[in-house]
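Hey team,

Sharing the tRNA(Ile)-lysidine synthase run so nobody has to redo it. Sequence (324 residues) first:
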Amino acid sequence: MARIPPPVAAVRMAVRRGLADLPAEALILVACSGGADSLALASAAQFCGRRVGLVTVDHGLQEGSDRRARSVAAWARDAGLDPVRIETVSVAGLPGGPEAAARTARYAALDAAAAEVGAAAVLLGHTRDDQAETVLLAMARGAGPRGLSGMPARRGVFRRPLLEVARADTRKACAALGLAPWEDPHNTDPAYARSRVRASALPSLVDALGPAVLPNLARTAALVAADNAALDELSAQALESARSGAGLSAAALAAMLPAIRGRALHRWARELGAPGGALAYGHVVALDALVTDWHGQGPVFLPAGIGVARRSDDLVRVVPTDIS
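Structure output:
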């Protein structure tokens, strides 16, 4: 019997582990752009004996993107995947730059497709290299632990089983299986920060520190993510203990460790309606000052026009007519 090439085995083992908790009859969708990572992922998911379908998203941002989507869908049907869907999205009017807008549209389309066909999971082809890039980008913009935790292995219906698999192995797996990946020109476009990190920053780090820097960055993300989960649980409990009839007790907040208090205030701000994408470190610092550096200052204004003020021993939400 022919020996399975190690890169093929690595991808298949990762997928098998990532789906181990799902019933054997569960439908799995693979989000596939036609690149090496998602092609290897789709092939491995099917090899594991699962009911596997495929979704490819056409963002309409490149000439011929519709033809590329049809080509990926045709490959999937020939390979026996079912259902196979092409989701066409528009990024017009979505917040952020082109990358952020495309990501928002893509995830919404994948989520909707999963709901329509009753899929138990949507698999994403992000690899260990993608995780290392994400951590480095988070460090560059001064992100806290939440940013340094990188991409989660699971969130809702989405799963990333290849986060411990090297990008080089997905390419080698495709070559061994006779799959012809599509090379996305955006991945080498220096207009995008991630492309610059991929082309120069990470290779420079590898040259300076050795090849272990990539798995070490990805491992750091996993360790920080575990710490985040614990701190999030503690901060949720702390927030409940700080609730008062009017809002939050400043005395109860002041008694918390700073890391717990900051997370509790962040969670409360989200409860009040502040959108997570717009809620910044500075907003939480300003809320914290109402607790730890109170000297009669005025209200703190959060995104979405939300005001928070200190009234005696409580932090309370205020509206413009309440502010004097």
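The mean pLDDT is 91.

Ping me if you want the raw files.
A.
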